[in-house]
Amino acid sequence: MPYADLPLDQLRGHLSESVEPADFDAFWAGTLSEARAHGEPPAFTRVDSGLSLIETYDVRFPGFKGQPIAGWLHLPAGTTQPLPCVVQYIGYGGGRGLAHENTLWAAAGFATLVMDTRGQGSHVSVGVTPDPEGSGPAYAGVMTRGIGDPHTYYYRRLVTDAVRAVDAARAHPLVDPARIAVAGASQGGGLTIAAAALAGDVAAALPDVPFLCDFPRATWIVDKAPYDEIVHYGATHRDQAGTIARTLSYVDGVHFAARATAPALFSVALMDPTCPPSTVYAAYNAWAGSKQVREYRFNGHEGGGAFHTSEQLSWLSERLCRG
To answer: Which residues of the sequence carry a binding annotation for substrate (predicted)?
Structure first.
């Protein structure tokens, strides 16, 4: 696909026009306070993944409104001391997968908590967590579920789940709560940014070609899924443009990034038609903590692939495994 975004000199300095809601902090503080009021401890049940060098546990923890969320916890076999942990979020349409999947970080010596994605898990990988909340009219997919109000919007629930996944990881005795990293690509990258802002004292963040960033630009220039779900909905509900923009502003990664202080390693693909580089740079440029970005000039939404994974392994090991 040819390069179709801003000229490079503008791209690297791009700032979003997303308007931050005046009650953004209060909205999320109230949402998380309500979720954490459901104090049930997470449950970890040993399962046989078929992998002899990795121990895997089925995880159940309370998410939004205490609703049960599934996950996997992977540990290097024979772990006896608390380890740094990567909390991993999955891309759009995917779930936690099967017990033997998503074990790279555990193979590298980290604990790994892989969060299932409520109401998804039927496209990229298997999921088991339902989304019990009701919704008004919505376009196919999850992007417009409950979009008429930020309190009913789907991503309010999913972001809350992402934060509670960090809480769940911290509760396990073989996880060092001071060395938690958050990571994910696409939708998982957007959740990574949100969790880094909201979960408190996250040690590192790895947002990979992140989705859910700079909605005003993304919904204007992207003509494919998942952003186009919002466009199709808006084309029919012509009188709701302001309502849509207001709801999306509460989950825009740009505003979360402005509150994220952990060291971050971003990736951006300059020919990405799904999460255009300008939307990624909008979040990167807003990031409040120390940050680095790796550009992949000729790549689309696959980003840096295995090349970037190698970068992440080296970068994260340096920050969480020294000494």
So the answer is: 92
